[in-house]
Design a protein that fits this description.
With 852 residues, the chain is mainly beta. It is built from two helices and 62 strands.
Length: 852
């Protein structure tokens, strides 16, 4: 506060040195200098008769209680100035000063209904200064507590108010506060306290500076502190009033995330359940699960109205069910509130269950009033097999099967018949009709029976009534079939190992249709009147044959390769295995078969070597080759076909083939040959080096592997005389290499080899050598082998010039070397004068250098 003091020097001397004017305040004494020193001012000096008047701002102690106070001033209280009279240095203000304080009151506190741990919330507070003095700067503290006392619990924020609040003035501020991450989720009281640290002296403060009760206030509603999680719930679910078993059902529902966080990556499912109607209604998730719908996520506060198509189980036993939808029924998503009760919802009303009801309403196996009849092993065409679905909407029957049975009683299912009839399903009130041809097993007993049609024979459909699915009609079962072959023919001639076409006519002379049966074709050598004699060539399956009907058809069969040549009897037999019981037991081969009037002339192939020629003069060298021309002919009459075969050659001491004769390579493949056809092949045969010198025979043998079964196996060979000797003479007329070669690198050389003999040479090798230059010169073949070249052969009196690439050994020392070439260095081919003259050295030496 500002205090004005006036000081006069009434003495006749200058007042010095500088002195102080002290200002005091007292609650109960008007004596100058009484009470508490508030402050002072300094006067440097004061002349005689002079005055000093000045306002001084002093601070009232914060702990000063409100009320009336005496304010006084004392000059030179510490007697610095020597005065004539020290008793007149003080004065008290004629008017007392009233000390006042601010009074901060928390008028209102409001926060959110829910807060998330680790997240911020906004709190609105209103503070009013109900005191008579301005407040100065102050703070507002925000608290969360388990009790409702303002300022209790944990302070979560402090908001500074930097502007002084004048008397009787209010201020409303919004404070953002973070809920501590470690705060356990629960319901908490929210409170706010003005000047929580007692910085502002106020009316009503305690002696220790504590605030009065009006500084704090607790919000009317608690704050629910929750974790940072989603919270899924089903806010609505509905379904149609009726549902059909084993059929789709559309469910409408709304899922909402009332949590504080979005559903994390991975999403969630809404699952659906059916529970039998009961009082009270079942809880969400009760009963049997019937399906789900997956969601990828859901934002905070988002609602999603949608629908799902699910399949109703077919085995529901009750007539009415409640449906419930539960979000995250499998607990995969951590939530604020877990459990089916919190996450689910049940339909308001029950759903009635409707089921299909399949009945066979019509089934005819004969024209009324006649009784149906069918043959054992026969067929029966039934008509107007009608099935109706008597269920009400939406009880659609899915795909089902109708089967047929034979029984001695109308209410039992004994022997199942084929085929069954498949349906794609029936809508409520819809019908399905079929007219299958049934096969009667040969093994059933004859007599009066019942033919029964059964809808949903595989029990694929869950029906309202499972006992009304059959319909029975009487039927007579007997041996009413009589199969006969009325005609059979074949070709005039047939080749062994080749196809042949037989024609036949089969007839059902009985009084009922026949089902599937077999007709087999047989052939026997010579003239044999018995049907079914000889070897079975093949068969044909006949799917069915009506009463009195005939079927003329053909069958392609293969005549066995080993079937004897000559005339043969062809026959056909219906049902040779007697699988069909027939009228009067007339079902043996004699009754069911027939022999062709004309025989079939069976022709085998006959391979012969019709021509076999060789060189002139007829001579071959040991280790050499000989070229021969061979003609192989199939001497069979039409249609005798010779399949592919093998021609081989042998070296023999006589003109008759013997298994001990020396086989020569190569063999030749002979293609398939028609009757009278021939093929000529040219073959270059290799004569073994170990063959005996002298006169011998070359033998050509057709079908050498005995692959062809022929009419005559003794005429397959032909011999050719030949002289075997040492007629080859290999020489090396020329060899040359480069002037320089590098060790470890390739080297190209050229050579000429000659067969000076009188017969071709077979496969032989030319080898190459390097030997150091010496005196006398090294002979051919001396030194180190550096490579070779294999030649397939060489004709008589023929030369062959060619290059060759060899590699100089990497470890070969640097220097001059002689290159040489030797033909047949191993002596594999016997020659006229041995192999001593088979080599030659190059005229020019080769300088071998080391690599750089």
């Amino acid at each position: 506060m500002s205090v004005t003091t006036r000081v006069r020097n009434i003495g006749d001397q200058l007042a010095e040195p500088s002195f102080r004017v002290d200002i005091y305040m007292s609650a109960d004494s008007n004596t100058p200098g009484a009470g508490v020193l508030l402050g002072s001012r300094t006067i440097v000096s004061l002349a005689a008769g002079a005055e000093s008047m000045q306002a001084t701002v002093v601070t009232v102690p914060p702990t000063t209680a409100p009320g009336l106070y005496f304010v006084s001033a004392v000059v030179d209280a510490d007697n610095v100035v020597v005065e004539s009279n020290d008793g007149n240095n003080g004065a008290t203000a004629t008017t007392q000063v009233e000390i006042i304080r601010p009074d901060l009151e928390m008028v209102a506190v409001k926060g959110p209904a829910r807060g998330v741990v680790g997240k911020t919330i906004n709190i609105d507070t209103t503070v009013k200064n109900v005191g008579r003095a301005a407040s100065g700067a102050f703070a507002i503290g925000i608290y969360l507590s388990s009790t409702d006392a303002p300022g209790s619990g944990q302070r979560i924020a402090t908001r500074g108010i930097t502007t002084s609040l004048a008397a009787n003035v209010s201020t409303m501020v919004t404070t953002s506060a973070m809920i501590p991450p470690a705060l356990p989720p629960a319901a908490y009281f929210l409170s706010a306290v003005a000047d929580p640290d007692g910085v502002v002296p106020e009316v009503g403060d305690g002696d220790d500076g504590t605030n009065a009760a009006n500084n704090g206030k607790t919000a009317l509603a608690q704050v629910q502190v929750v974790p940072f999680l989603p919270d899924l719930e089903i806010t609505a679910v509905s379904a149609p009033r009726t549902m059909a078993v084993a059929r789709p059902l559309t469910v409408s529902f709304t899922v909402r995330n009332t949590g504080t966080a979005p559903v994390p990556t991975g999403g969630f499912r809404v699952s659906f359940f059916l529970a039998e109607a009961a009082t009270p209604p079942p809880a969400p998730g009760d009963g049997v699960g019937i399906g789900f719908k997956a969601f990828t996520g859901l934002a905070v506060g988002a609602s999603l109205p949608t629908s799902a198509v699910i399949n109703v189980p077919g085995n529901l036993s009750a007539n009415a069910y409640y449906l419930s939808a539960v979000a995250d029924a499998d607990g995969q998503v951590p939530e604020i509130t877990e459990g089916a009760a919190a996450n689910g919802k049940v339909t308001a009303t029950t759903i009635a269950v409707v089921r299909p009801d399949l009945q066979v309403t019509r089934f005819e196996a004969s024209v009324a009033p006649a009784t149906a009849r069918a043959a054992r092993g026969g067929t029966l065409a039934v008509r107007n097999v009608t099935v109706k679905n008597f269920g009400v909407a939406p009880a659609t029957a899915g795909p089902f099967t109708v089967k047929f049975y034979l029984s001695d009683r109308p209410d039992t299912l004994d022997v199942e018949l084929t085929p069954a009839v498949q349906t794609m399903g029936l809508a409520p009130g819809a019908t399905f009709s079929a007219a299958p041809t049934l096969t009667i097993p040969p093994s059933v007993t004859p007599g009066s029976k019942f033919l029964i049609a059964r809808a949903d024979a595989l029990e694929q459909i869950f029906e309202g009534d499972e006992s009304n699915n059959t319909f029975a009609v009487p039927i007579e079962i007997g041996d009413f079939v009589d199969l006969q072959i009325t005609a059979v023919t074949g070709p005039a001639a047939a080749a062994t190992g080749r196809p042949m076409t037989a024609s036949f006519t089969v007839r059902n002379a009985g009084t009922a249709p026949v089902g599937r049966f077999r007709v087999s074709v047989f052939m026997a050598l010579g003239v044999d009147p018995a049907p079914g004699a000889g070897v079975e060539l093949g068969f044909k399956e006949i799917p069915a044959l009506a009463t009195g009907a005939s079927l003329a058809t053909t069958l392609a069969v293969n005549v066995p390769a080993d079937f004897p040549q000559g005339p043969a009897s062809l026959s056909a037999v219906a049902d040779p295995g007697n699988t069909i019981p027939e009228l009067g037991a007339s079902d043996d081969a004699a009754a069911n078969g027939r022999v062709a009037i004309r025989t079939v002339n069976v022709i085998r192939p006959d391979l012969q070597v019709s021509r076999f020629t060789g060189p002139s003069p007829a001579r071959a060298a040991r280790g050499g080759t000989v070229t021969v021309t061979t003609t192989v002919r199939n001497a069979a009459m039409s249609p005798g076909m010779a399949p592919a075969s093998t021609l081989k050659f042998y070296l023999s001491t006589d003109d008759a083939f013997d298994p001990l004769d020396v086989e020569l390579a190569p063999a030749s493949a002979i293609p398939m040959l028609g009757p009278g056809a021939a093929v000529a092949v040219v073959t270059r045969l290799a004569i073994p080096a170990a063959a005996t010198v002298g006169n011998a025979f070359l033998i050509a043998r057709a079908d050498a592997l005995d692959e062809v079964i022929e009419s005559d196996e003794a005429n397959n060979t032909k011999a050719l005389p030949i002289e075997i000797g040492d007629f080859v003479d290999l020489t090396m007329p020329a060899i040359a290499g480069p002037a320089t070669a590098t060790a470890g690198r390739p080297m190209t050389l050229s050579f000429t080899v000659r067969n000076a003999g009188t017969a071709p040479a077979g496969l032989f090798r030319v080898s190459f050598f390097l030997a150091p230059v010496s005196d006398p010169a090294p002979p051919p073949g001396a030194g180190v082998l550096v490579g070779f070249r294999d030649l397939q052969g060489l004709a008589a009196v023929t030369s062959f010039a060619t290059p060759a690439i060899v590699t100089v050994p990497a470890d070969l020392a640097q220097g001059s070397y002689v290159l040489s070439a030797v033909a047949d260095v191993e002596g594999a081919i016997p020659e006229v004068a041995g192999n001593a003259a088979n080599g030659r050295t190059a005229a020019r030496a080769i300088n071998v250098v080391r690599p750089p």
